[in-house]
Amino acid sequence: MKKIWMIFIMAGMYHVIALAQDLVVTADGDSLNCKITQIKGDYVYFTFRYQNEIRNTLLPVTKVKFYQYNYYAVSDVLPFQIVGYKPEFPHWRLAFNAGWGYRTPRIYDGLDPIAKEHVKKLKSGFDISFDASYFFTEMFGAGFKYDLFKSSNIIQNLKGDITLNFIGPAFAMRFFDHTKTNCWFMNYGFGYMGYKENMSIPGESVTMKGGTAGFVIDIGYDIALSKNWAAGIQLSLLSGMLSEMEMTTNGVTQKVKFEKDQFEGLHRLNITIGLRCNL
Questions:
Q1: Paired strand residues for 158
Q2: Where are the domains of the chain?
Q3: Under CATH, which number does the domain 21-81 receive?
Protein backbone atom coordinates (compact mmCIF):
# COMPACT_ATOMS: atom_id res chain seq x y z
CA MET A 1 0.00 0.00 0.00
CA LYS A 2 2.83 2.42 0.84
CA LYS A 3 4.41 1.78 -2.57
CA ILE A 4 1.16 2.77 -4.32
CA TRP A 5 1.00 6.01 -2.35
CA MET A 6 4.61 6.81 -3.29
CA ILE A 7 3.80 6.33 -6.97
CA PHE A 8 0.91 8.80 -6.70
CA ILE A 9 2.99 11.40 -4.85
CA MET A 10 5.99 11.11 -7.18
CA ALA A 11 3.76 11.41 -10.21
CA GLY A 12 2.45 14.67 -8.89
CA MET A 13 5.92 16.12 -8.37
CA TYR A 14 7.42 15.52 -11.79
CA HIS A 15 5.14 17.23 -14.29
CA VAL A 16 6.80 19.68 -16.71
CA ILE A 17 4.71 22.46 -18.13
CA ALA A 18 5.45 23.20 -21.77
CA LEU A 19 4.49 26.71 -22.92
CA ALA A 20 4.53 27.64 -26.59
CA GLN A 21 6.68 30.63 -27.53
CA ASP A 22 7.02 32.91 -30.55
CA LEU A 23 9.70 33.45 -33.17
CA VAL A 24 11.06 36.80 -34.30
CA VAL A 25 13.65 36.93 -37.09
CA THR A 26 15.44 40.27 -37.32
CA ALA A 27 16.58 41.97 -40.49
CA ASP A 28 20.13 40.95 -39.52
CA GLY A 29 19.11 37.27 -39.57
CA ASP A 30 18.98 36.66 -35.80
CA SER A 31 16.26 34.23 -34.60
CA LEU A 32 14.79 35.10 -31.21
CA ASN A 33 12.85 32.66 -29.02
CA CYS A 34 10.54 35.20 -27.40
CA LYS A 35 6.99 36.10 -26.42
CA ILE A 36 5.38 38.78 -28.57
CA THR A 37 3.28 40.97 -26.27
CA GLN A 38 1.87 43.29 -28.92
CA ILE A 39 2.39 44.75 -32.38
CA LYS A 40 1.41 48.38 -32.23
CA GLY A 41 2.09 51.16 -34.64
CA ASP A 42 5.54 50.73 -36.15
CA TYR A 43 6.92 48.50 -33.38
CA VAL A 44 6.94 44.85 -32.30
CA TYR A 45 7.02 44.48 -28.51
CA PHE A 46 8.37 41.23 -27.06
CA THR A 47 9.96 39.56 -24.03
CA PHE A 48 12.97 37.24 -24.31
CA ARG A 49 15.77 35.71 -22.29
CA TYR A 50 19.32 37.02 -22.83
CA GLN A 51 22.16 35.40 -20.86
CA ASN A 52 19.81 34.27 -18.06
CA GLU A 53 18.22 37.72 -17.87
CA ILE A 54 14.61 38.46 -18.85
CA ARG A 55 14.37 41.50 -21.11
CA ASN A 56 11.32 43.41 -22.33
CA THR A 57 12.09 45.32 -25.50
CA LEU A 58 10.82 46.40 -28.92
CA LEU A 59 11.97 46.57 -32.51
CA PRO A 60 10.83 48.74 -35.39
CA VAL A 61 8.84 46.69 -37.89
CA THR A 62 11.41 47.71 -40.51
CA LYS A 63 13.99 45.66 -38.59
CA VAL A 64 11.78 42.54 -38.30
CA LYS A 65 12.11 40.22 -41.27
CA PHE A 66 9.64 37.59 -40.05
CA TYR A 67 7.64 36.58 -37.00
CA GLN A 68 5.40 33.62 -36.05
CA TYR A 69 3.29 32.94 -32.98
CA ASN A 70 3.63 29.61 -31.12
CA TYR A 71 6.65 28.61 -33.17
CA TYR A 72 8.62 26.96 -30.34
CA ALA A 73 7.12 24.11 -28.31
CA VAL A 74 9.02 25.08 -25.13
CA SER A 75 9.25 28.58 -23.75
CA ASP A 76 12.30 30.33 -22.31
CA VAL A 77 10.04 32.84 -20.57
CA LEU A 78 7.46 32.07 -17.90
CA PRO A 79 4.07 33.79 -18.26
CA PHE A 80 4.41 35.97 -15.17
CA GLN A 81 7.70 37.38 -16.55
CA ILE A 82 5.89 38.93 -19.52
CA VAL A 83 4.96 42.61 -19.29
CA GLY A 84 1.19 43.03 -19.00
CA TYR A 85 0.60 39.32 -18.44
CA LYS A 86 -2.99 38.60 -17.47
CA PRO A 87 -3.74 34.90 -17.21
CA GLU A 88 -6.92 33.69 -18.87
CA PHE A 89 -8.10 30.32 -17.69
CA PRO A 90 -11.31 28.56 -16.60
CA HIS A 91 -11.83 29.06 -12.87
CA TRP A 92 -14.38 26.26 -12.30
CA ARG A 93 -13.83 22.58 -13.03
CA LEU A 94 -16.82 20.28 -12.50
CA ALA A 95 -16.14 16.57 -13.04
CA PHE A 96 -18.33 13.47 -13.02
CA ASN A 97 -16.66 10.03 -13.08
CA ALA A 98 -17.90 6.46 -13.22
CA GLY A 99 -16.05 3.17 -13.37
CA TRP A 100 -14.55 0.29 -11.43
CA GLY A 101 -13.38 0.20 -7.84
CA TYR A 102 -11.39 -2.41 -5.95
CA ARG A 103 -10.89 -2.71 -2.19
CA THR A 104 -7.26 -3.53 -1.46
CA PRO A 105 -7.23 -4.82 2.21
CA ARG A 106 -6.37 -8.49 2.54
CA ILE A 107 -8.97 -11.10 3.39
CA TYR A 108 -8.61 -12.28 6.98
CA ASP A 109 -7.56 -15.86 7.63
CA GLY A 110 -9.91 -18.26 9.35
CA LEU A 111 -12.94 -17.82 7.09
CA ASP A 112 -14.61 -20.91 5.68
CA PRO A 113 -14.36 -21.33 1.85
CA ILE A 114 -17.86 -20.00 1.14
CA ALA A 115 -17.43 -16.90 3.33
CA LYS A 116 -13.96 -16.28 1.86
CA GLU A 117 -15.30 -16.43 -1.70
CA HIS A 118 -18.15 -14.08 -0.71
CA VAL A 119 -15.77 -11.49 0.74
CA LYS A 120 -13.56 -11.78 -2.34
CA LYS A 121 -16.49 -10.99 -4.65
CA LEU A 122 -17.42 -7.95 -2.54
CA LYS A 123 -13.95 -6.42 -3.02
CA SER A 124 -14.80 -5.09 -6.51
CA GLY A 125 -17.72 -2.97 -7.52
CA PHE A 126 -19.09 0.13 -9.23
CA ASP A 127 -17.77 3.58 -8.34
CA ILE A 128 -19.03 7.08 -9.14
CA SER A 129 -17.64 10.44 -8.02
CA PHE A 130 -18.22 14.17 -8.39
CA ASP A 131 -15.59 16.88 -8.02
CA ALA A 132 -16.08 20.66 -7.93
CA SER A 133 -12.94 22.79 -7.91
CA TYR A 134 -12.38 26.54 -8.09
CA PHE A 135 -8.96 27.60 -9.41
CA PHE A 136 -7.42 30.77 -7.98
CA THR A 137 -4.59 30.53 -10.51
CA GLU A 138 -4.15 28.49 -13.66
CA MET A 139 -2.46 25.74 -11.62
CA PHE A 140 -3.86 25.81 -8.08
CA GLY A 141 -7.39 25.48 -6.76
CA ALA A 142 -9.60 24.07 -4.02
CA GLY A 143 -13.04 22.52 -3.74
CA PHE A 144 -14.76 19.37 -2.57
CA LYS A 145 -15.14 15.74 -3.61
CA TYR A 146 -17.81 13.08 -3.22
CA ASP A 147 -17.19 9.41 -4.02
CA LEU A 148 -19.58 6.44 -3.79
CA PHE A 149 -18.67 2.75 -4.10
CA LYS A 150 -21.15 -0.14 -4.13
CA SER A 151 -20.70 -3.90 -4.45
CA SER A 152 -23.00 -6.90 -3.91
CA ASN A 153 -22.85 -10.68 -4.09
CA ILE A 154 -24.98 -13.79 -3.57
CA ILE A 155 -23.41 -17.16 -2.94
CA GLN A 156 -25.61 -20.10 -1.95
CA ASN A 157 -27.79 -18.79 0.93
CA LEU A 158 -25.44 -15.90 1.79
CA LYS A 159 -26.35 -12.45 0.49
CA GLY A 160 -24.48 -9.24 1.06
CA ASP A 161 -23.74 -5.73 -0.18
CA ILE A 162 -21.29 -2.99 0.78
CA THR A 163 -21.58 0.78 0.42
CA LEU A 164 -18.61 3.10 0.94
CA ASN A 165 -18.65 6.86 0.57
CA PHE A 166 -16.24 9.75 0.92
CA ILE A 167 -16.98 13.46 1.19
CA GLY A 168 -14.63 16.28 2.00
CA PRO A 169 -12.62 19.32 0.89
CA ALA A 170 -9.84 18.90 -1.62
CA PHE A 171 -6.79 20.75 -2.89
CA ALA A 172 -6.49 20.67 -6.70
CA MET A 173 -3.68 21.12 -9.22
CA ARG A 174 -3.70 21.05 -13.00
CA PHE A 175 -0.98 21.17 -15.64
CA PHE A 176 -2.03 22.34 -19.11
CA ASP A 177 -0.15 21.34 -22.24
CA HIS A 178 1.23 24.00 -24.60
CA THR A 179 -2.11 24.22 -26.43
CA LYS A 180 -3.87 25.20 -23.17
CA THR A 181 -6.65 22.70 -23.90
CA ASN A 182 -5.66 19.29 -22.48
CA CYS A 183 -4.28 18.93 -18.98
CA TRP A 184 -3.10 16.65 -16.21
CA PHE A 185 -5.15 16.97 -13.03
CA MET A 186 -4.44 16.09 -9.41
CA ASN A 187 -6.70 16.14 -6.35
CA TYR A 188 -5.72 15.73 -2.69
CA GLY A 189 -8.70 15.39 -0.35
CA PHE A 190 -9.30 14.76 3.35
CA GLY A 191 -12.71 14.12 4.85
CA TYR A 192 -15.30 11.64 6.09
CA MET A 193 -15.45 8.00 4.97
CA GLY A 194 -18.61 6.02 5.67
CA TYR A 195 -19.04 2.24 5.65
CA LYS A 196 -22.19 0.13 5.53
CA GLU A 197 -22.49 -3.63 4.99
CA ASN A 198 -25.64 -5.73 4.87
CA MET A 199 -25.42 -9.50 5.26
CA SER A 200 -28.18 -12.07 5.43
CA ILE A 201 -28.71 -15.81 5.64
CA PRO A 202 -32.05 -17.58 6.20
CA GLY A 203 -33.31 -16.54 9.63
CA GLU A 204 -30.65 -13.90 10.32
CA SER A 205 -29.74 -10.45 9.01
CA VAL A 206 -26.78 -8.31 10.02
CA THR A 207 -26.05 -4.64 9.28
CA MET A 208 -22.69 -3.06 10.11
CA LYS A 209 -22.13 0.70 9.96
CA GLY A 210 -19.25 2.99 10.79
CA GLY A 211 -17.39 6.14 9.86
CA THR A 212 -13.87 7.49 10.07
CA ALA A 213 -11.48 10.09 8.68
CA GLY A 214 -9.95 9.29 5.33
CA PHE A 215 -8.10 10.82 2.43
CA VAL A 216 -7.96 10.51 -1.33
CA ILE A 217 -5.53 11.19 -4.18
CA ASP A 218 -6.71 11.50 -7.79
CA ILE A 219 -4.54 11.65 -10.90
CA GLY A 220 -6.21 12.14 -14.26
CA TYR A 221 -5.89 13.50 -17.76
CA ASP A 222 -8.52 15.70 -19.42
CA ILE A 223 -8.90 15.85 -23.22
CA ALA A 224 -10.79 18.87 -24.53
CA LEU A 225 -13.95 18.24 -26.57
CA SER A 226 -14.90 21.91 -26.90
CA LYS A 227 -14.20 25.20 -25.17
CA ASN A 228 -16.04 24.20 -21.98
CA TRP A 229 -16.28 20.41 -22.15
CA ALA A 230 -13.67 17.67 -21.81
CA ALA A 231 -13.49 13.91 -21.41
CA GLY A 232 -11.12 12.37 -18.92
CA ILE A 233 -9.67 9.26 -17.38
CA GLN A 234 -8.78 9.12 -13.70
CA LEU A 235 -6.94 6.89 -11.24
CA SER A 236 -7.90 7.34 -7.58
CA LEU A 237 -6.64 5.96 -4.30
CA LEU A 238 -8.74 6.27 -1.12
CA SER A 239 -7.67 5.24 2.36
CA GLY A 240 -9.15 5.00 5.86
CA MET A 241 -9.35 2.63 8.86
CA LEU A 242 -12.35 1.77 11.05
CA SER A 243 -11.61 1.04 14.69
CA GLU A 244 -15.25 0.43 15.66
CA MET A 245 -18.70 -0.16 14.13
CA GLU A 246 -22.33 -0.49 15.06
CA MET A 247 -23.63 -4.00 14.42
CA THR A 248 -27.37 -4.65 14.19
CA THR A 249 -28.41 -8.32 14.28
CA ASN A 250 -32.10 -9.06 13.77
CA GLY A 251 -32.97 -5.57 15.06
CA VAL A 252 -30.61 -5.60 18.09
CA THR A 253 -27.77 -3.01 17.90
CA GLN A 254 -24.45 -3.09 19.71
CA LYS A 255 -21.14 -1.29 19.34
CA VAL A 256 -18.15 -3.42 18.32
CA LYS A 257 -14.57 -2.23 18.88
CA PHE A 258 -11.74 -3.88 16.98
CA GLU A 259 -8.27 -4.73 18.17
CA LYS A 260 -5.53 -2.70 16.50
CA ASP A 261 -4.50 -5.56 14.22
CA GLN A 262 -8.14 -6.16 13.22
CA PHE A 263 -9.16 -2.65 12.07
CA GLU A 264 -11.43 -2.63 9.02
CA GLY A 265 -9.44 -1.19 6.12
CA LEU A 266 -11.33 1.04 3.69
CA HIS A 267 -8.48 1.39 1.20
CA ARG A 268 -9.64 1.37 -2.39
CA LEU A 269 -8.30 1.83 -5.91
CA ASN A 270 -10.61 3.31 -8.60
CA ILE A 271 -10.23 3.53 -12.36
CA THR A 272 -12.89 5.79 -13.88
CA ILE A 273 -13.79 7.86 -16.94
CA GLY A 274 -16.09 10.82 -17.20
CA LEU A 275 -17.03 14.30 -18.36
CA ARG A 276 -15.64 17.64 -17.19
CA CYS A 277 -17.15 21.10 -17.48
CA ASN A 278 -14.72 24.04 -17.35
CA LEU A 279 -16.19 27.47 -16.71
A1: 155
A2: 21-81, 89-278
A3: 2.30.30
